[in-house]
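Sanity check

After download, print the first record. It should look like this:
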Amino acid sequence: MSGRGPWRLWALATACSALMATTTAPARKKVVIIGGGLQGCATAYYLKERADVDITIIERTEIAAAASGKGGGFLARDWGRGPTKALHELSFDLHAELAEQLGVSSYRKISTLEVRGELGLREWPPKHVTAKPIKTSPLHPDWLDRTDTKSTLLDQNTAQVAPKELCEKLFEASGATLKRGAARGLEIRARDSSSSSSSSQGGRKTKHTV
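Expected structure tokens:
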């Protein structure tokens, strides 16, 4: 969730808005999303927020089963660079809004410290003398020995969230239906059903047509 991850929620929200803005037919739309990770669940959530759609998520095992449910969930508002800097800032704020709206209990604002250990503070090998506490940050955690480590404040504008909980909350709020399975191919038919094209992976034909 650090790096490119934080701004993807904002990008998905914008893309969903653009998609539904082009939809003018009165009939209720059916949408199938392949993958129940952060991008899949966020897409389902923002589609539901913007239109009356029937959403199905196809997932091999469960929601947030892979990387989306196992990341560290570290968020930094001001660590973006270049063309994605604005997206980092917007997405950081969006995570805070989602945490409040969806009741994401694991979300928390945190301060990030830079910590240096003994090798960077004392001569090596260390002398057998009584070590005095090192002047360090007031935010220095109790579980870090003040005689062997020094911390300085790096950034106060950071946060953390459990990605699995965020994915599950987005999925629940989307009202989507979860279907366990795997996509083996894609078949596209013209509106009048007079012609179609299909593709398959690894030489296997599609088992189901969506």
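If your output differs, re-run the checksum step. Summary of this record's structure: Residues 194-201, 203-210 have pLDDT under 50 and may be disordered.
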